[in-house]
Amino acid sequence: MSGFNALSKPLKPRSEVAVHTIHPTLEQKPRAKYNVPDWFNHNYAISFDAERSRNVSHQVRQDGRRLINETYNESWWNKHDNDVRISDRLDEVDKWRKTLEYTIQDVDREVQAIQAAKEQCERYLEHMRSPLGKLLTNRKKQNKN
């Protein structure tokens, strides 16, 4: 029997203890229950199976650690990338907000300047109308007379 195959078959000794059925004496030494090759093969099979189990459990532990590290790294980088994207987006939104605020301020200043110019034009027109109006009224009166 060799290696792994020894595990699949029950261990059966090749010989049993030879004892005389009629009064055994102390001078007779019982023979070994297992032969040396059987004992060696059985221990080898147990050792081989234990080593294989250790290797499998070690591989499972290593795969678990690798998976944990891989998942941690991937989630860390995904979080980092998302943080960078959000930060960039916030910077872009802030830039556009400031641009719009400056534009609104410029438009307000232009509206105020236009309103001031309009009021000034209206005052000029009013000043121009006053003398013209009086002149025209005076001329009409003169023409009627």
Automatic annotation (TrEMBL):
Belongs to the tektin family. The lineage of its organism: Eukaryota, Metazoa, Spiralia, Gnathifera, Rotifera. InterPro entries: Tektin-like, Tektins. GO terms for biological process: cilium assembly; cilium movement involved in cell motility. This is Tektin. It is found in: Cytoplasm, Cytoskeleton, Cilium axoneme. Pfam families: Tektin (PF03148). Keywords: Cell projection, Cilium, Cytoplasm, Flagellum. PANTHER family: TEKTIN. GO terms for cellular component: axoneme; microtubule cytoskeleton; nucleus. The keyword Cell membrane does not apply. Its main location: cytoplasm. It comes from the Eukaryota.
